[in-house]
Amino acid sequence: MTAITHVYNYTVRCPHYKDNDQPASWLNHIEINQSCEIALNRITKWHTDSGTKLAEVGNFIIRKADGEKAYFVVQSDRLPRDGHALVTFKILLNDCCQDADPIEITKHLVEDYQQRLAKVD
Questions:
Q1: Model confidence pLDDT, tens digit, residues 28-50
Q2: How many Å apart are CA 84 and CA 78, to the nearest integer?
Q3: Superkingdom, according to UniProt (predicted)?
Q4: Whole-number Cα distances in Å, 8 to 11, 21, 88, 97, 101
Q5: How far apart are CA 50 and CA 36, in angstroms?
Q6: Where exactly are the structural domains of the chain?
Q7: Where are the alpha helices (DSSP H) in 1-121?
Q8: Which of 107, 60, 65, 108 is nearest to 88 (CA)?
């Protein structure tokens, strides 16, 4: 049996303010943590409310949550030495991010995640 040895939770939020030094962008509002509790809470919520499939980015399936402007992805990957990585993406969009594309955001997050996995020994 393989254990989950690495957990990555990405949360993307649209800014609710405009910083004079930088343009308002979701790129400035990406949070990453490695909390198993957050991952389990997300999986539990999304299991009971699987949402509507929006698109696929490679083998990552993006789903739109029902009743809110949020998108999510859950994926696992096998790692060397019998490890497993679990990753969750939660993308929260609102009226201030009308131009934000959840597919483009997911592509960016997948690239970051894959770079992190490449560093795992």
A1: 789 999 999 999 999 988 877 77
A2: 5
A3: Bacteria
A4: 10, 29, 6, 24, 21
A5: 20
A6: 10-118
A7: 36-48, 102-118
A8: 60
